[in-house]
Specification:
single chain, alpha/beta, Rossmann fold, two-stranded antiparallel sheet
């Protein structure tokens, strides 16, 4: 039986990228379609106020990336936090990527803020700091596409670091078998990352932009992380 995943989309793509990439929810669907764990997906854009009906049942809720700050005070962010806290208290499994990774850390007692390290972009390397049954196939290190200027600077109580680097010490974490979050973007593709980089060249500066573009020559392990996420949800089901 397929897993049922609710994707809470927390952004809309830039107009010039919509035709080709549609949205983050669609990118996650494409990522998970390549995994051996069967799943079905329902996408709700919470930025536009869309949420599942109360009686809908899901195996997990996934919070996507966003250009918004996780520590922002926008009404839609407050509504999302209330929704997620209810799901957490109910015992539902929660997944977070980038904005979602930071928002869940904040919500559960950690801290997220603008990083003193500056922008993280391109392909970035992490060491894997723990091993768990759902981390299959196993890996000692990870390369992921990233695009963030905020970071989780303190983890919630009871959280275990899954992956880290000197640049991003809390790059991935899990809380028991209920919460799993990644700062990197397993759903991104190299061409989408390149398009984003070129749109942000002014804010990044030529040097950061150039290094990030050069890093795109390397492969990333988004597929592996996608498989870990689905195995995490399937575990104990």
């Amino acid at each position: 039986m397929s897993l049922r995943i609710c994707i809470l989309e927390t952004d809309v793509l830039r107009p010039e990228l919509v035709d080709q990439y549609q949205g983050y929810g669609r990118m996650f669907e494409q990522l998970f379609a390549r995994q051996p764990v069967a799943a079905q997906f329902s996408i709700y854009n919470v930025l536009n106020g869309h949420y599942p009906a109360e009686d809908e049942v899901f195996d997990a809720y996934l919070v996507t990336g966003s250009k918004a700050d996780s520590f922002g005070t926008d009404p839609w962010i407050q509504t999302l936090k209330t929704f997620l806290l209810e799901r957490y208290k109910r015992g539902d499994k929660l997944l977070g990527v980038c904005f979602g990774h930071q928002l869940l850390a904040l919500l559960l007692g950690g801290r997220a803020e603008r990083a003193t390290q500056g922008w993280g972009v391109g392909v970035h390397d992490y060491q894997v700091d723990t091993q768990a049954e759902w981390m299959n196939p196993p890996a000692k290190d990870l390369a992921l596409l990233i695009s963030h200027q905020d970071q989780v600077t303190a983890l919630p109580e009871g959280a275990t670091v899954v992956a880290s680097s000197a640049f991003c010490p809390n790059a991935a974490y899990h809380i028991g078998d209920q919460v799993l979050c990644f700062q990197g973007h397993p759903e991104f593709m190299h061409d989408y990352s390149r398009a984003l980089l070129d749109l942000r060249v002014q804010s990044l500066g030529a040097e950061v932009h150039g290094k990030a573009v050069a890093s795109l020559e390397r492969e990333h392990q988004g597929s592996l992380v996608g498989e870990w996420m689905m195995r995490f949800v399937a575990q104990g089901r």
